Structures are given as structure tokens and as C-alpha cells.
């Protein structure tokens, strides 16, 4: 394999972690990363948290220092983009007209913010958050406090930016079409807990409203709702989800299904092309369906898995989905399968009133998801419990004196129930 050429399109965490794994596994061939941004690869969580708030520098976001790529003989092509894939000839057309041949190709093209098609969306002061520049622009506007920020959308980005902006001394209003923030991710009960927490911190939440347009004369001055009310704003951040960047793959004829469709080994419909990160909709053996996960941990773990698959190693990507958030003085980690929680029973361990607890979603007697709130060093145990697929005693699950690992080991296997 020493004379082979592996190309990675996408300069984010998935692409960088895949390149690192290739070298860790001893691949001595050529590795090229085509990165559209001019920065070295970075992670995105600090952009809505520490970097936005000014408590962290960019070093906290970079996957590796700039010189790491040269030291590991990885050709990092910054500020470059792929224009077309030629699957038959196994080559990539770049933006300067040159052709980049490959033996194996990894698509790690990520996702882009979903644009809100309303009047006023192009006014000065209207923001989206995806890049370092986006976060820098927001920090420059919010860093000194005293501004009126209106957030359209109450997903994780909206709630995190709202917390960061409020911490910096700004007025924050969150507008949301749904009645409860974060309900699609963690359900009504726990979404309501986050809503109450934000209100306690001075954030104004306006659920069940419809945004009609953004108003202003050259620069944003407010957000008009469907009933004609105008919510005053100096800045507006739109956070209504993301769309996987599939244009390149779709034009090449790869199978697209809410992202680039892959099997459990992260192979696309072309045997020489793989996908990882936000753009990949990969088959997961636990739920027996494809899952597309836009969170940091997925890119961190899926990139190396794709690299192993590119090297011909037997690979099954079966990581339990994981994400975390930091909002004000509340920290949370979530592991599990949201698709299995619809009719699940929620079991609490700890003190909900003080917001120091673990919530477990139990379906058919098995833990399918867990969320630890201001309780630390338990996520590995939560994941082991989910992975065990054992029937648990609900009273023992709620009892803090019963070790979680004991539940994973001592509960009755489903097949013996």
C-alpha cells in the first residue's frame, strides 16, 4: 500500500482524525486533505461555548497544531475545494482545474447551516454559526455586553449561544416554533428543565411563535412575528438546523439519503469511496437503520473507523451516539439512541431539584439512553449499561447506592428474561 494515494475531502475533525489514524496504522502512502477553509482543521463546540464567550483561545479548537501535518507527511491543502468526482477514473477535479488521483477517497464534507428563507435575512447583524469567522464576528458584537440578541431556534446551538451571550451581559430572547426547547432531542420533561434554567438566568424564551421576517433599514432592528409584534434586536442568530453537504457526492452518482448513505463500514455505494462525520448517514447495527449524527464525538470516532475501513480492516461502526453541552453553570452529557426513546420510561437517579442527576430512558426493560447533568465521570458506565442490552431493575437504577456497572453486569440478559 506504500504507493497508494488516499484523498480526504473536508478539513474538519472527521477528516483530520482519519488522516491521523492512517498514519497510526502505518499507512506510508500519500495522504492529502482538501480543506475549503484556510484554517487548520478544528472542532466546533468551542465556537458556541468557550471561544465565543472569550474564555478559550483558538488553540482549544484546533485538532492538531499547524506543523503536525507536515511532520506526519500529510499534504493539507488549505483554502481549496473539490469541484467534481470522477468515480470511474478515481480522481478529483479541484478548483484550480488540476486533477487529484486517488486509490481510496473519504468524503468528510460536513454540513452547512440551514438558511431561513424569510425577508430580511441578508441584513447586517444577521448571523449563522458554523465557522471560526462566524464565532469571531459574534464575539466582537457581544463581547462587551449591552446588546439585544434574538435567537431564532432553540436547538443546542441556540441555547448554547444564548447562555454565552447572557454570560457576557447581553439581553437574550429565544424564539421557537415548538412549545418546548430541545424536546426533539431529550423530550418535553427535560426540555422544560432547560427552559426553566434559562429563564432563571434572565433569558427570555418565546415558545410557540412563528417568525414572519427580520426588519431593519440596512441593519437589523428587530424580528417581526406572525401576529405583527416586533421583537427588538441589535443582532439576530439563526439556528434552525444543518444540511449535509452532499452536492459533490450527489453529482457523482453516489446514493444519497439524508446525507451520503454508507454501510456499517462507512463504505458508500462506490467501493473506493467512504464517508464520515456530519455528511455520513451510516447504517448502525444496534438500531438496524441509518443514523446521521452531527455531534463532535461522531466525527472524532467515525473518521478513524473510516480510515481503518479504507485500509481494508474489518470495520463495524457501532459507537453509541454521544453529545454534550455547557450552558451557564450546567454541564450535561448524553449517550444513547434517540430513535428508541419515543415511548421509553424515564428513570432518575440523583437530585432533580438541584439539577444534579442522571436520567435514563428505559424501553422494554433496557436502558437505551442516559443523560448525566452536573454529575461527572459516569458516562463510560452509562454507555456500558446501554451496550449491555440487559433488562434492569428500575428501583435499582434509581438507587445511587447501586453501582451502575453492577447493573450492567448483574441484570438479567434479555434472552433469559
Short synopsis of the structure:
With 417 residues, the protein is of the alpha/beta class. The protein has helices at residues 13-24, 45-48, 50-53, 66-71, 132-142, 156-167, 183-200, 247-252, 296-310, 379-388, 394-398, 404-410; strands at residues 5-9, 30-35, 74-78, 82-86, 91-94, 99-101, 104-107, 111-113, 126-127, 148-152, 171-175, 204-206, 211-217, 219-225, 230-232, 235-238, 242-244, 260-262, 273-275, 280-284, 289-291, 322-327, 330-336, 345-351, 356-363, 366-373, 390-391, 412-413.
The CATH homologous superfamily of the largest domain is termed: FAD/NAD(P)-binding domain
| Fraction of residues in helix | 25-40%
Instruction: Report the C-alpha radius of gyration, rounded.
Output: 23 Å
**For this structure, what is the CATH class of the largest domain?**
Alpha Beta
CATH architecture assignment of the largest domain: 3-Layer(bba) Sandwich
Average pLDDT: 95
What is the total tally of β strands? 28
Q: Strand fraction band?
A: 25-35%
The profile of the biggest β sheet is: 5 strands, parallel
Domain module tally:
3
Low-pLDDT windows of residues: 411-417
Strand order of the largest sheet: 3-2-1-7-19
- Separation of termini? 49 Å
Structural class: alpha/beta
Assembly type: single chain
Amino acid at each position: 500500500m506504500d504507493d497508494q494515494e488516499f484523498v480526504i475531502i473536508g478539513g474538519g475533525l472527521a477528516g483530520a482524525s482519519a488522516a491521523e489514524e492512517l498514519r497510526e496504522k502505518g499507512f506510508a502512502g500519500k495522504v492529502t486533505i482538501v480543506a475549503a477553509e484556510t484554517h487548520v482543521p478544528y472542532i466546533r463546540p468551542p465556537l458556541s461555548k468557550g471561544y465565543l464567550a472569550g474564555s478559550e483561545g483558538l488553540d482549544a479548537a484546533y485538532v492538531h497544531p499547524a506543523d503536525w501535518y507536515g511532520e506526519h507527511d500529510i499534504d493539507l491543502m488549505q483554502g481549496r475545494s473539490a469541484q467534481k468526482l470522477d468515480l470511474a477514473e478515481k480522481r478529483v477535479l479541484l478548483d484550480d482545474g488540476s486533477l487529484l488521483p486517488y486509490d481510496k477517497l473519504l468524503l468528510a464534507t460536513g454540513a452547512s447551516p440551514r438558511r431561513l428563507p424569510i425577508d430580511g435575512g441578508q441584513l447586517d447583524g444577521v448571523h449563522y454559526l458554523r465557522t471560526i469567522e462566524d464565532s469571531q464576528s459574534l464575539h466582537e458584537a457581544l463581547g462587551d455586553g449591552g446588546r439585544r440578541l434574538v435567537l431564532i431556534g432553540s436547538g443546542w446551538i441556540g441555547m448554547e449561544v444564548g447562555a454565552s451571550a447572557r454570560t457576557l451581559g447581553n439581553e437574550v430572547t429565544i424564539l421557537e416554533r415548538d412549545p418546548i426547547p430541545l424536546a426533539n432531542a431529550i423530550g418535553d420533561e427535560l426540555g422544560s428543565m432547560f427552559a426553566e434554567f434559562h429563564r432563571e438566568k434572565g433569558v427570555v424564551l418565546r415558545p410557540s411563535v412563528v417568525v414572519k421576517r427580520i426588519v431593519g433599514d440596512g441593519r437589523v432592528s428587530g424580528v417581526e412575528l406572525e401576529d405583527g409584534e416586533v421583537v427588538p434586536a441589535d443582532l439576530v442568530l439563526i439556528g434552525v438546523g444543518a444540511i449535509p453537504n452532499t452536492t459533490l457526492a450527489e453529482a457523482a452518482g453516489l446514493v444519497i439519503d439524508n446525507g451520503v448513505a454508507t454501510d456499517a463500514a462507512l463504505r458508500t455505494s462506490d467501493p473506493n469511496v467512504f464517508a464520515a462525520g456530519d455528511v455520513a448517514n451510516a447504517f448502525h447495527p444496534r438500531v438496524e437503520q441509518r443514523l446521521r449524527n452531527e455531534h463532535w464525538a461522531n466525527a472524532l470516532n467515525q473518521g478513524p473507523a473510516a480510515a481503518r475501513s479504507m485500509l481494508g480492516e474489518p470495520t463495524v461502526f457501532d459507537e453509541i451516539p454521544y453529545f454534550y453541552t455547557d450552558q451557564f453553570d450546567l454541564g450535561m452529557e448524553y449517550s444513547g439512541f434517540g430513535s428508541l426513546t419515543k415511548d421509553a420510561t424515564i428513570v432518575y437517579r440523583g437530585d432533580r431539584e438541584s439539577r444534579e442527576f442522571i436520567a435514563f430512558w428505559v424501553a422494554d426493560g433496557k436502558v437505551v439512553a442516559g443523560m448525566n447533568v452536573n454529575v461527572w465521570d459516569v458516562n463510560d458506565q452509562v454507555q456500558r449499561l446501554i451496550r449491555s442490552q440487559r433488562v434492569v431493575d428500575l428501583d435499582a437504577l434509581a438507587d445511587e447506592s447501586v453501582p451502575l456497572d453492577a447493573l450492567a453486569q448483574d441484570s438479567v440478559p434479555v434472552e433469559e428474561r
